[in-house]
Amino acid sequence: MLLPPNFLSPEDQAEYDAYMARFSEVNHYYEHCTVPVIDWFFKQATEALHHGLWLPACTSFLNGIETSLRVTLKLKSTVNVQQSVPVLVDLDGTSVMSNALMRKAKQEGMPIELLSFPAEKNMLAKIDAGKKPEADIVRLRNSLCHGNILEFIMSVKVGSPDPIRIFTPGNCCGLALLLSALSKKWTVGLHQYWIDNNLTSC
Q1: Residue 34 to residues 17, 118, 140, Cα–Cα distance (Å)
Q2: What domain of life does the native source organism fall in (predicted)?
Q3: Could you count the other beta carbons within 10 Å of the beta carbon of residue 75?
Q4: Nearest-CA neighbor of 46 among 70, 65, 23?
């Protein structure tokens, strides 16, 4: 919504613009909804992102992607064109984030190529190869969601001959922004997949 020129002070205008940017990004997940047990991960990740909470943003985006794969595969195995979508009670029988889970999703026609990172050229080959090497999205989920932040530690020199290794949540800022962009594309494709397979009424 556009406001009249000079209606707000520069500080208030900046705050208003930030609010509208956050609102627009969160609204994306309402427009491309599936079910709350999936959608809220992405909405909360986006809220965390806009508040500078980089680690919660990363883990929530990654958990949202994993949950979306598991829930979709669970529902896909029990629904058909003649029946309504069943009530989801548990995720028994679906594996956690792995190349195998991604491979199963690919076999079911899910658009998993949307989960490839920009610099990752061979994600589908990794998935087809077996457990190792892991697709980047799998590796990152398994690292961050198990508390392994070693790859995000930075080495800096502060006057001593030996560099000091440090970690702050800001080290994950770039990854959080990357996961946000990837999640937006993924949820668009996932939403369409749910429509095409009679999994949602959104």
Answers
A1: 28, 25, 24
A2: Bacteria
A3: 20
A4: 23
Interval 34-71: pLDDT, tens: 788 888 999 999 999 989 999 999 999 999 999 999 99
Residue by residue, DSSP assigns 168-195 as -GGGGHHHHHHHHHHHHHHHHHHHHHHH
Could you tell me the sign of the dihedral formed by the alpha carbons of 143, 145, 148, 151, in that order?
A: positive
pLDDT of residue 82: 45
Range(s) of the domain holding residue 150: 11-78+92-195
The number of folded domains in the chain is 1
Cis peptide before 133 (omega within 30 of 0): yes
Whether 112 is covered by a domain: the verdict is yes
Q: Does 181 reside within a domain?
A: yes
Give the DSSP letter string of 31-73: HT---HHHHHHHHHHHHHHHTT-HHHHHHHHHHHHHHHHHHHH
28 and 3 Cβ atoms separated by less than 8 Å:
no
Contacts of 45 (CB under 8 A, 6+ apart): 56, 57, 58, 60, 61, 64, 179, 180, 183
CA dist., res. 63 & res. 91, Å (int): 14
- DSSP output for 87-142: PP---TT---SSHHHHHHHHHTT--GGGG--TT-S-HHHHHHH-SSSPPHHHHHHH
Report for 120-129, 152-161, 178-187: range of highest mean pLDDT: 178-187
Give domain status of residue 1, yes or no.
no
